[in-house]
Please model this.
Amino acid sequence: MHPKKHLSFAALRHSMSEHFGKMDDHRQNGKVNHRLHDCLMCAFAMMFLQDPSLLAFQRRMQEERQFSNLSNIFQVQSVPKDSQLRDCLDQVPTDQLYGIFDNWLHRLQRGKHLTDYRFLKKYYLVPIDGSQYFSSNTIHCESCLRAKSKKGAIRYHHQILQAVIVHPDMRQVLPLAPEPIQNTDGSKKQDCEINAGKRMVAKIRKRHPKLPMIVVGDGLYSKQPFIDELKKSGMSYILVAKPDDHTVLFQWVNELHALGDGGSLEFADKKGRLHRYRWVNGVPLNGTADADNVNFFQYELISKGKATYRNSWVTDITVDENNVVELVKGGRARWKIENETFNTLKNQGYHIEHNYGHGNKHLSMNFFVLNLLAFYMHQIFELTDRLYQQCRLKSSSRKEHFGLLRHAFQLLPARVKRVVT
Ligand SMILES: [Zn+2]
Model:
């Protein structure tokens, strides 16, 4: 067994700093007072410290000690005014930031941390799900999705599709680069989650050509065109399939089961609850002539004679009595993107729905991505950094923990070791 390598703040910040330093700066030379690096890093530092106000953050950073900490810890040379920072970030195409997600994942891989995320020996589970992080009747930009109410009022939204690497037994989730669900130049048609899903699958494969992945999705995704896209990208899948959406599939399953095809497994746990599994391999996904054959499995949890949980999925992995329990755990790990990711970002101090500034082009999405990177960095520390884990245990909640961190930043002079490369 190889020892796992600790990923330090200095190493992660250094890779981020390098990435920011290499990005194209489209601003006109004469008008630039602050480096692009410093604008991006100031915004990241604010997210890292979970500060709810850009203006208050910017003002505090004028104080000598706080500026000194910002400069020592985050390598910032000068602090832009809040309006300068917003103007600068609005111009940065969001996908320029995505290399940081790849870099950190490779570091986790090299540090042997991904081995804990292996699922069914060789795969990584990648749940995907959409979420809305902005909505307004008045504030909007070029990328906003638009929805008309019955009375004709327009409401503006920003939504993203997110993919994260998870494991049923691991608390930390590892986000991949998000895919915006947004209107692009000239397109009159509103973008939608399933189209974003197809784009995202192709992009993930391009960024991670060799990573064996199982994409985990809800009932929206268990449709032929999306499964075709997964096949094209060489990805496996576990996708929710409900009887109402898949009448033909369920007819096949029920008939084949009645003929003794497929299998079933049942056992009681220590609490006396009954776990019931059923599966059939090689059934058509739908009633069309060129329908794919998929493998079907379902699970019921029965407590005191009543089913307290029931779900069913389709997969390309052949189901048998040796893997059905794991496959169900994989399908159920989808809640980790709702609970451990979106819920944490929305309700645990990250202020992801807070409007730090909307901009005309990329600002809203860039703030979202920098916040997601702060969350990712914290997840890496929780996973790999014993000192961070000990500090985190001293607080009863994430909010309290980051409150302490902000106060320490205000009061204590800090030094961070330089990274020698
Ligand atoms: Zn917008």
The mean pLDDT is 91. The pocket of zinc ion is lined by residues 140-141, 143-144, 156, 158, 358, 364 (CB under 6 Å).
